[in-house]
Amino acid sequence: MLSFTVAWRNLWRNKRRTFLTAGAVAFAVLLIQLGMSFQAGSYEPMVEVSTRFGSGHLQVQHESYKDDPRIEHVVADATALREVLLQLPEVLSVSNRTEAFALASKGEKSYGALVVGVDPIVDPTTSYVSERLIDGRYLDEPDSAFIGSALARNLEIEIGDELVILATDVSGSVAFMAPTVTGIFEIGNDALDRALVQVPRASMNSALALGDGAHRVVIMVANPMKPTQVVPSISTTLTEATKLYDWHQLMPEISQNIRLDKISNGIVYGTLTVIVVLSIANTFVMTAFERTREFGMLRAVGMRSNSLFGMFVLETLIMWMLGVFMGYCLSTCALVPLAIIGIGMDSMGMEQFAGMFFLPDRIYPAVDLKVILVAPFAIGFGMLISTALASIRFYRMSLVDALRYKE
Amino acid sequence: MSRVKLIFSMSARNLRRQWRRNSILLFAITVAIGGVIVLNSFVRGMQVQMVDTVVDNLSGHIKLHAHGYRDDPTVERGFSIGTDDVDFALKDLPVMGWATRLTVPSVVMSERETRGAQLVGIDPDRESISFISSATLEGTQLADVHDSQILIGRALLDDLQTKLGRRIVVITQDADGISKEIGYTIAGVYDAQSESAERAFVFTGLEALQGLLATNQVTELSIRFRTRYVDQADYTIVQTAFSEFDVLSWQQSNPLVAFLYETVDVVIYIWLGIVLGALVFGLVNTLITAVLERTQEFGLFRAVGMRPTVIVSQVVLESVILMVIGIALGLVGSLAVFTWLSEGIDLSAFASGVDMMGMSPRINPAALPRDISIVILISLVLSVVASFFPAIRAVRMNPLEALRD
Amino acid sequence: MNETVVRLEKVVRTYGQGNVAVHALQEVSISIQSGEFVSIVGPSGCGKSTMLHLIGGLDSPTSGKVWVEDQDIAQLSSNQLSDLRLKRIGFVFQAFNLIPVLSALENVEFILQLQGVSSNERTSRALEVLRSVGLEDAANRRPGELSGGQQQRVAIARALVGKPLLLIADEPSANLDSAMTRELCELLQQVNRDYDITILTATHDPTVMSYATRRIPLEDGKILQDASK
Predict the structure, then answer these.
(1) Which of B61, B104, B83, B80 is nearest to B239 (CA)?
(2) Where are the domains of chain B?
(3) What is the pLDDT of residues A145-176, one digit of tens each?
């Protein structure tokens, strides 16, 4: 096609301008793509780490427990529910947890603690807490306790010591447990290290007279970023007076921080795109003016306005493709090594907060279709609008004036 | 003088001659400058707010502990200090006030629930330096250091499923390391900016608490300055005066906030670089074209004896005028945005997330003169640099060649 | 041989309004028959170009009517006008006005492409026309590498390749020296005879006038007397 030849050669006639325009596109594509791929790459590990120290991907609870966390608000027959849930193809693992705020003491020292009853065999498939063992061993006998490092320090308790736990049972009377500390963990999150105590759920349930009840039936699924996908099939298995929550509802701070991050980055990308598109629009307007006479001549020898516009759009598309290609090359050069080595939290001075914020040690860029397409298409759209605005001239110009136009 | 005027008027006319492309460029500059100022002001606003919140939340600007308290925050790690000694040490510093407190970890139990919190003995007369004196309160404020009632945060009250006027039991250790159960009546419920603060602290009278815990010591001394930021020199003075203590700046007592605080500075400059970088493409492209298409005109000027420096200054001036107008419009634009958002940005939809970062759910912009000056300065330098090289290229051309072109 | 190709009836073209109005053409009526070689002559500013622009559908009259081949061109849409110029009228401009990024051959082919001619036929027809204007050797050169005379011959080739009824040339010799002008005129004459294409030029160059079969003198937008043979 000669129109393509004309468009192509016109671009090479003004190399500097073409490259500056393509360069602006490449600049924006590169920055937005780097930003988005690290965003995308950081959310999933962040969700994974925080859910595995906290709520899990989804939870079944007694329908009132979330708003009114009373000890008696349990999911009854949790073991049976677990078996049913495990039959679902989307479900990877399920762990029942019982919990109570209690007074943990050793000798004269007492601290408030969150005591969580877990199944020692099953819980590690849903939680990372067991992996953060720094001393002793994980729960392995009926009357064992796995406690946070700060709590151990505060209580001056050591492996093998007896931990006295006072809590309130279902009937409102004081329940007493005295497990032996078998292990100490350190997560890096002050609140958990200072207050979390894990004990076997069986012994806790009998001490608190909870039967086979669980406050939280923690469910892990294959795609944690889209927990709602599995809600319909899990909902069908739910028993009476229970309710299903996903991590967005259980850990709103994580969900909100991700949304806040997406919004603020969106504003940054949007502003960047607008500035780049305006810069490019200016180039198009200049081009359209400079070539008035050429356009007039093309119209005079019988080219229709629409074909002329098409030719101008073609030039835009070629410049766009060139810029996107350059941007992709640059971002690939940057992303491939980063995808292999990742960015360590330590290089950003973040390692001391990794535990606190449940951040992974390293984050790796993640490239998905959205990351690849958003920037190029937003800019391409802006460029087409600019082209259209610059081309209003083709439709309005007097051919006689155009042919006489002095550059 | 007349020559300057001539150059100026020629530049202005040339700008008007290409009004169409110049207005698009102006629009781009306005968006860039306005965008940078608005975004950076909000980021600054967040930063300032983080500091205020932290300083307000009992940290003060500087906090003193006995050695070892940070690792083992118990009554045993307390200290005694005389009011006169403190006043004497701080007499030459711009201090708003100071307060001593007795802070101990404790377990708070209602008839229904149990939670952990810090039990803080305060002198209500001295607490004008922290949020508790100005917080919205349901019930009554603590009367004095002897008041043995308790103030608790709204969120903790809800967690405990109890009410104002009810009794709660607080378990903590006294100076001998022995657990003590203290019965309290809830005298007041306070609302703080963040729920985490409401859950963290319960307040009672300092001397009343000291009596219960069999001590006459305190665990911390918090100092607040009149200014938002503390000079390093002033910090050093305090450090020297209280050399037998751990002297912690707010940054040291709140490493996360200090980190976020420093990150903001970096973010502001990265963002500035990105936006002005994007602007360069448009600027350079337009200016080079503008200069090249006037090669003939410049040749004519040269032929009639105009000095190259005059031509160069004319081109540079055009670019600078454009930038100055753009900056002015950008400033007006950002002012409009600030007026529109005069209530601040409401982030209450993200309350828990924002709380986690130590910020309050309403962010007000803080347009610091220094930030704005840097934006203006860099963009002006940019406009000079981007126009200088094309202009030099234009005047290097032989006048005859240029005329023939 | 005697079909009317172009007819103007009381055509008036006024630019501007009121005191500053310029009356470029004042009630001009002529008709041009098939096969004529017409030269509109007169000093610059007499309205020659305006007349050519009106006939070529680049401009429209303030009043009066312009017919090209029995078609009142005021009735045509913008696209129909484009098609008229593409298929029935060939334009040759004073400043050559070739597409600078295309070679001579491609410039000629471009018109055929617009007409929708298949690619094989395009190349052979374009080469044939270039040969007829004596430029087959320069087919692959771009306008910048051609002399003024050569460029104008490419322009004529471009105007001819679409097999138009009418070839309009506005001051075709303005940028040429006298030898080139004579060559150009001979080419135009040959085109007029061999291809039976009506030629309409505007000029104040006596050489061009001398080749015309009919001269229409124009002064201040009015035809003085029709000096047709």
Answers:
(1) B61
(2) 2-54+258-404, 67-244
(3) 999 998 998 888 999 999 999 888 888 788 88
